[in-house]
Design a protein that fits this description.
Two copies of one chain form a homodimer.
Chain A lengths: L6 H19 L4 E2 L1 H8 L3 H10 L5 E2 L2 E3 H12 L5 E6 L3 H7 L9 E8 L8 E2 L2 E5 L3 H8 L3 E4 L6 H10 L4 E4 L12 E4 L2 H9 L3
């Protein structure tokens, strides 16, 4: 169960999880691999194969038990291991992420937003106060946060990354269109929107 | 050259492209595979292998010629095939994408934003006017747009997708945390932020 799961499988499992959450909201108790496959336009056998990897016992003649399948996915992907993070850059993108529905369901706990624009400091986004960025190092230490979600404009990306590294941030989820230069003990996850778009559109 | 390039390679090539754009801005003429590899914390030989796939002639003893390598990547990934798109949902996320630096460099031409909030209609985001969503079907027809970037709140995702399908949109780049149900001739590209986050954090 804790052997390495490929990125593609993780990605599909989170999509199944979205579907299951939706079914629960609608009060539907059972789901078939076929129903999941149809929604995602993928192969039925792929869905069954993915689900077989989980420690899932909730299978009945009328399909998987929605609640049990959902919780199997959560266990396998470690949703319960909550990870605390800060957002750096409280512009449109930072605010959108702060408001982005169900991150906490997936174990991402965003504690605060930081910005250097005096007009933004003190404002509240989704119950989180926007704080002056100079307060980040102390807050990171106090609250034991080592993940930063970087949503500043591209031209400030590298200097902000340097600042985060000094503040002992070890993981940067980079939403800027800039490749960051960081020391070896810091990991950057590039949310490469352009790359994704090109991947999607490569064949059209 | 036009054989299928894997998603991972496309993703890396766009990151190389970001680095090359940055080098051009800084007036640097040459780059080594080692420099690219160091920035991305990947293996040198991987970078060389990716670049060898391109139709790139600009190699010298002091490294790749930045401008030529950049244009080789653009040719291979088809940046010049411009794709027109609309953004549906002019909230924080839609506005962030409309403002997201260099999409046009990558062949994505966002023509307009649409929303149903009267307070937003007529406002301008990055030189694009926010239009009433009821005008979308005609605009899509007139301007021959079949890509929609969906950035509405999750609870309106499916109904908006239904509307887009009726308006003959064939590709939906879905930024909502909802799995959409669409006919077989419509393709949905899920920008699965939660999945990406879990992928990144799976091993920490």
């Amino acid at each position: 169960m804790n052997s390495k799961i490929s990125e593609k499988v993780i990605n599909r499992l989170t999509l199944y999880h979205c579907i299951l959450s939706d079914y629960i909201n609608k009060g539907i108790e059972f789901i078939s691999s076929k129903q999941i496959a149809t929604l995602l336009h993928i192969d039925d056998s792929q869905v069954r194969k993915d689900i077989n990897m989980l420690n899932n016992s909730g299978k009945s003649r009328v399909g998987y038990i929605v609640k049990e399948l959902k919780s199997s996915i959560e266990k396998t992907l470690g949703f319960k291991k909550t990870k605390k993070a800060f957002i750096i850059g409280a512009g449109n993108l930072g605010s959108a992420i702060a408001n982005y529905g169900n991150f906490t369901d997936y174990g991402l706990n965003i504690l605060a937003l930081f910005d250097n624009d005096p007009a933004k400091i003190g404002k509240v986004v989704n119950n989180m106060k926007i704080q002056e960025v100079s307060q980040l190092p102390l807050a990171a230490k106090d609250e034991d946060v080592d993940i930063a979600i970087l949503t500043v404009p591209g031209k400030f990306a590298q200097s902000t990354a340097d600042f985060l590294v000094k503040a002992n941030i070890k993981y940067i989820w980079n939403f800027t269109p800039v490749v960051l230069s960081v020391p070896d003990d810091v990991q950057v996850w590039n949310e490469n929107l352009m790359g994704n778009f090109l991947q999607f559109t490569y064949n059209i």
